Amino acid sequence: TRMYIKLGDITRGLKLALTANNKQLFRDCAAILESMKQSQDAALMYEKGELYDKAAAIYIQTKNFQPAKALMQHIVTPKLHAQFAKAMENQKNFVEASLSYEKAKDVDSVVRLLLEHLNNPQKAFAIVRKT
Question: Which one is predicted more confidently, 21 or 85?
Answer without folding.
Answer: 85
